[in-house]
Write a structure and sequence with these properties.
This protein is an alpha+beta fold and about 120 residues long. The chain has four helices and four strands, in the order H-H-E-H-E-E-H-E.
């Protein structure tokens, strides 16, 4: 977005429309700042799961049933078990925490909140 914005400003300034360039720069800056601070009730998390059994299908089904946006970032397999790192975007993490604690096949899990992508 920044690349296209800078090309646009270069073309506008090349046409000597400086007022338009300044106004659009201010408007785009305000929109980007607003988008940075609006989270629409959804937060980004990283879920780390450790299990002695393969629980990937269980997790995928749970995410699909609850309409949780997810992306498996890492899968580690060893003789001791399975480790998964999953990026999640969800509103109610306490509900997910309760569901994970009910799953007897999951030995250990961690939920980490983070800022996924910074615009500004």
């Amino acid at each position: 977005m920044y690349l296209l914005w800078s090309v646009f400003i270069g073309i506008i300034c090349g046409c000597q429309l400086f007022e338009v360039g300044v106004l659009t720069s201010v408007a785009v800056t305000l929109v980007l700042i607003a988008l940075e601070h609006l989270n629409f009730g959804r937060k980004s998390f990283v879920l780390i799961v450790r299990s002695t059994e393969d629980v990937e299908q269980d997790l995928t089904k749970m995410f699909k049933d609850r309409k949780i946006s997810n992306k498996f970032k890492s899968r580690n397999y060893s003789s001791k078990g399975y480790d998964y790192a999953i990026e999640l975007t969800y509103k109610n993490i306490q509900e997910l925490n309760g569901e994970l604690s009910k799953n007897k096949r999951i030995d250990k899990y961690s939920i980490i909140e983070y800022d996924a992508d910074d615009i500004v």
